[in-house]
Design goal:
This protein is of the alpha/beta class. It is 44% helix and 13% strand. Strands 11-12-13-14-15-16-17 form a seven-stranded parallel β-sheet, covered by helices on one side. The two termini are 36 Å apart. It binds one DNA strand through helix 2, helix 4, helix 7, helix 9 and strand 5.
DNA sequence: GCCGTTTTCGGCCCGACTGTTTTCAGTCG
């Protein structure tokens, strides 16, 4: 079958567009939700939908995707268009979807503006407000116009989402400051994407209990780095910080804290699915508790676990609450025990001031030992193109000498290197040098614009090198600043299994590379995964938790992660010649 | 539009806040 080369993301985009237009049209809210739900399901699919269609698969059994949507997927994949969408576009005024992107402009307002004021662009909205035309429309006034205008401005200036690693310190600071300024504050905790450890955060949700909500709200809006108050109530208050981040604070009775925690941790799809399930039991869920729909009586919960228990299920850890099967497993009491920070026995990617790190070798190693590791690999950069003060063969040999003669460490120190994978797939050091190392992390640092075919071939060539232990930050992406390289990840994971090469989950919050979806597929195919910090200073060692969260989000257990192996087993792994390593990995970790 | 150990038809998650209104629609999460 001839196909057009469309990604799952694009297909999901079609249904989001459908949903948006139907919303503006005022169509059935349930039909709209069905399209949105389908879009979310499609986004979360592991394999390519296009390939599935090309292979003649029926697409049956995908939740939320029935006859009609199936047909549209098929149409889009084979023809590159969806006639229903085009028809819809034709009957709707131009620009409605664009207008709906502005916070404060929903489907109704977008239609009103487009139809009555003949405006189809965001710039047009600004003009209409300046003219006073918009304010004259029904249910529009000065305040609404002012709000929209401000939202347009923030939309232009602010970065849409920030890495979790930047949001977390903000959360910690707010918690500390509120505790200090509001003695009546009892519990306070983040919810939403922060609590779920998502890689990026759009805004921050916080939850609190207190006997004095007014005092808490006053303290909150009075924080010195709050620049704007979006809304203020005793239950919900929203502010914008000087760094552009929006923070919502919700306050609730302590009897309902567990219910609220559940409610505002989400994600959205998890909650929808959970409420759907509760409905089938005759129960209705809200942030206040669980209501028996027959008697109308509400039960409150101080603890989240009790809330889930009332529904007859275990509590899925927040990281996996994204409606991808966790509810079903929780009901069957079959949730896996996910890998934890404490399971990691060694860090396999770390730099010293010999290359671009900030601390001397001894300082880095002492910090690692303090962190409780059984082993650590020091992996300074190879000489490459002279970047990052890479080590010449000579300096590398001298570093090896120092490390091998080190005494007095309880932790095993492994000699390693982060070796450049050159544009043609060869490595910076010759094989006889690599052979002297215990751990070789091979990474791409240059020629990132290569075609997918070339890049895939390049990385696989590095994997075939008998001395390469791990592929470092496989896609090289930097959150918010550098796109991932083009590569056939599926092929890389298969090559990892075939060659006995591990794939890194780089825990640096700016990288998180592999990401959670990659991890899911790698795990499925049985590729060994490694979680490393890529530390350039002692402070980065604690960033391990971000990498562990990536693994947890797609249900990795300790057995999927190579560096959860105790020292003896890990040594057995690296001492075994390469393709054979898979046997060791599968034996020691039980695949 | 999807879905069904209640159903192939009739349901579909739930509440807070704002602004423009005299009782609520619209938006958001």
């Amino acid at each position: 079958m001839k196909t057009k080369g469309v990604s799952n993301q694009e297909i999901a985009g079609v249904f989001d567009e459908m949903a948006g237009l139907l919303e503006a049209k005022g169509d059935s809210i349930f039909k709209i939700r069905a399209y949105q739900r389908a879009a979310r399901v499609i986004e979360g699919l592991p394999g390519s939908l296009e390939e599935a269609v090309a292979a003649g698969e029926e697409l049956k059994g995908l939740p939320g995707i029935g006859e009609a949507i199936r047909g549209k997927i098929h149409e889009y994949v084979t023809t590159g268009r969806v006639s229903a969408l085009e028809k819809l576009k034709a009957e709707m005024p131009d620009g409605v979807l664009q207008l709906m992107n502005v916070p404060g402009i929903g489907p109704k307002t977008a239609m009103l503006i487009a139809r009555e004021a003949g405006v189809s662009t965001v710039e047009g909205v600004e003009k209409a407000i300046a003219d006073g035309r918009l304010q004259k429309l029904p249910r529009m006034g000065e305040k609404t116009a002012e709000n929209i205008l401000r939202n347009i401005r923030t939309l232009r200036t602010k970065d849409r989402r920030i890495p979790l690693g930047r949001a977390m310190p903000v959360v910690e600071r707010i918690m500390a400051d509120l505790r200090e300024r509001c003695p009546a504050l009892e519990k306070i905790t983040p919810g939403g994407s922060v609590r779920r450890w998502q890689e990026t955060v759009g805004d921050i949700d916080m939850m609190a209990t207190t006997d004095d909500p007014e005092q808490a709200v006053k303290a909150f809006v009075g924080l010195p780095y709050v620049t704007r108050v979006l809304g203020k109530g005793v239950k919900k208050t929203s502010v914008i910080l000087d760094n552009g981040l929006q923070v919502d604070l919700r306050i609730i009775d302590k009897e309902s804290f567990g219910a609220m925690l559940q409610h505002f941790t989400g994600d959205r799809q998890h909650n929808i699915q959970l409420r759907d399930y509760a409905n089938s039991m005759g129960l209705s869920l809200s942030e206040y508790g669980i209501t028996d729909m027959k008697t109308g009586r509400m039960e409150k919960f101080t603890e989240e676990e009790a809330f889930y228990r009332r529904l007859g299920m275990d509590t899925p850890t927040p990281e996996i609450r994204h409606a991808r099967g966790e509810i079903e497993l929780a009901r069957r009491h079959a949730l896996p025990r996910l890998v934890e920070v404490g399971d990691i026995r060694g860090d396999l990617h770390m730099h010293s001031d010999w290359s671009d790190g900030r601390a001397p070798i001894e300082v880095m190693l002492e910090a690692a030992e303090e962190a409780g590791y059984q082993y650590v690999a020091l992996t300074d950069h190879s000489s490459g193109r002279g970047i990052a003060n890479g080590l010449t063969e000579e300096r590398l040999r001298s570093q090896i000498g120092i490390l091998r003669s080190m005494r007095g460490m309880a932790m095993k120190v492994l000699c390693g290197s982060e070796v450049d994978i050159r544009a043609d797939g060869t490595l910076d050091y010759p094989d006889e040098v690599l052979a002297e190392l215990d751990v070789v992390v091979a990474s791409v640092h240059s020629a990132m614009g290569q075609s997918s075919e070339k890049m895939t071939e390049r990385i696989i060539k590095a994997m075939r090198n008998p001395h390469v232990t791990v592929i470092g930050h496989p896609t090289t992406r930097l959150l918010g600043s550098r796109e991932p390289v083009q590569a056939d990840m599926e092929a890389l994971f298969r090559a990892a299994v075939e060659t006995g090469t591990a794939m890194e989950i780089n825990a640096s919050p700016e990288r998180l590379d592999l990401n959670d979806t990659h991890v899911m597929r790698a795990k499925e195919l049985g590729a060994p995964l490694v979680i490393s910090t890529d530390s350039h200073s002692t402070g980065s060692l604690e960033k391990l938790r971000y990498g562990v969260a990536v693994a947890r989000r797609w249900w990795c257990e300790a057995r999927h992660i190579l560096n959860t192996l105790p020292l003896e087993d890990f040594m057995a792994f690296i001492k075994t010649p390469k393709p054979e390593r898979m046997r060791v990995f599968n034996q020691r970790l039980g695949g």
